[in-house]
Amino acid sequence: MATRESYRLDYDFPLPVYSMPKLTSPLPVKEKDGLIMAAFSNCEPVRTEYMRQLMTFVQVDSYGACLRNKNDLVARYSSANGKDFKQLKTELAKKYKFTLVFFNQDCDYFVDDQLSHALDAGSVPVVMGTDKLDEFLPGNLLHSVIKVRDFKSPRNLSDYLKYLNNNETEYNKYLEWKWKGIGNITGTVIARLLETKVSNLLPNVRCTFRRTNTQGWSSANHVQGEEL
C-alpha cells in the first residue's frame, strides 16, 4: 500500500502547514491602539462577505486587497529594507487586540501559518476554518483563539469582541499561554511533528473546499492550497 503525505494530521506522513507559536511577550493591552486587523488578498467570496458584514458592526482595519481601508502595510512593504511581508504583518498585528485569520479553504486539518503569525504577535486570532482546529492547539493553546463557528452571526461575533475590548481581564485569558507557556503537550500528534521539525509549507496542497456561505459549510469544489 502506498504511503500518503498531506497537511492532514490523519495521513501516514502529516506535514502541517503550521508552526508552533513563539512565547514572546505581547504588548500590554494599553499599548494596543487597534481593535481588529485583517490582511488577506485572496478574496474568496465567503470570508470576504463575512468580513464585510462584520465591518457593519465593528471597526476592522483591512490592509489586504479584500475590502481594504488601510494602506499602511503596502507602504511599509515598499520600504521594508529586506523584511519579509509576513514579518511586517506580524509586527503590525502586535498593535491590534484581534486579527482575523480567515483561511481561504475550509478543509479538515487545513491550518496554515496565518494562525502562527497572529499568535506570535500576541493578537488574539479570530478564526474561520476547519472544525479540527483544536488538534493544532494542544495544552494552554486551547483557549488562545476565537472561532467564528461558535457565533450565530457576524453581529454576535462583533458583540463578543466589543465585550472583550472593554474587559481586560477576560481578554487577557486568551493570552495566558504567553506567560504560562504552552504546557504539557507530550503525546499529541502535532507536538511530535513540530518538535521533530518536519512541518513545512507544501506547494499546491489540494483539499475539498466546503464553505458555501457565511452561515455554513458543505462539499463544493477543489482549490489550490495557496494562502493570503
Automatic annotation (TrEMBL):
SUPFAM superfamilies: UDP-Glycosyltransferase/glycogen phosphorylase. It comes from the Eukaryota. InterPro entries: Glyco_tran_10_C, Glyco_trans_10, GT10-like_C_sf. Signal peptide: none annotated. It is a single-pass type II membrane protein. Keywords: Glycosyltransferase, Golgi apparatus, Membrane, Transferase, Transmembrane. Belongs to the glycosyltransferase 10 family. This is Fucosyltransferase. It comes from Desmophyllum pertusum. The lineage of its organism: Eukaryota, Metazoa, Cnidaria, Anthozoa, Hexacorallia.
